[in-house]
Amino acid sequence: MATVNRTPLIAGNWKMNLDHLQAVAFVQKLHWTLKEAKHENGSVEVAVFPPFTDLRTVQTLLDADKIEFALGGQDLSAHDSGAYTGEISGQFLAKLDATYVIIGHSERRQFHHETDEIIAAKTQAALRHGLVPVICVGETSEDLEKFGASAVPVGQLEVALEGVASDADIVVAYEPVWAIGSGQAATPDQAQEVCAKLRAVVADKLGADAAARTRVLYGGSVKSGNIAGFMREPDVDGALVGGASLVVDEFAAIIRFQKHVGV
């Protein structure tokens, strides 16, 4: 497999938190915190995923203040337009200069009953509009006990990548459902084992070059105190951060993992 330098991606999924005014204050404070710490912008890519109602406001702020954060949506419709009340088209996200969109988050699978086939259709919708899908896969504690750590996420990713072109730009996020919000993260070894198998799926479906350049993230109770261990693993290229991405100092410390953990 070809070796490439994958820029680490630290992604903050705000979920249903922060209105558009709170979002402005948060992004400004995060930017100032990183600037005061002399964070090198090119060393790590930072992406924020606000609620839909915040996107235009955050986009305007990033543009006006020349803040080098990428912007992403938390979901999108499998449809491009039409009579789909409450849905958000990938076209709308693209017009807001969004780079990324989260697809198949465990909460969408659990609470909105999204199937692997729906997630595959949303992946295609993202790619149609030039968005980079952050494809989330992961197992519940029941899955873990019954099938082991990698079987379910591997199967989910195989379906999501059906029909995806070999030159497509994608991100894969491994989020063990049993770890999300529990305070009990997977171990670095556990994360590495599954992320390596997910990269192998990308290689099988899209080819070795795609596998070499595709970033695989870990998500599940990520904190500044444990990011070091994950980022030392060869197949972990960043983190999808939930609760900790809502705390400026904590999220800034996660972003700055290269400085304070000696990776």
UniProtKB/TrEMBL annotation:
Pathway: Carbohydrate degradation; glycolysis; D-glyceraldehyde 3-phosphate from glycerone phosphate: step 1/1; Carbohydrate biosynthesis; gluconeogenesis. Its EC number is 5.3.1.1. It holds the Pfam family TIM. Keywords: Cytoplasm, Gluconeogenesis, Glycolysis, Isomerase. One of its GO terms (molecular function) is triose-phosphate isomerase activity. Gene3D superfamilies: Aldolase class I. It is found in: Cytoplasm. PANTHER family: TRIOSEPHOSPHATE ISOMERASE. NCBIfam families: tim. Homodimer. This is Triosephosphate isomerase. The gene is tpiA.
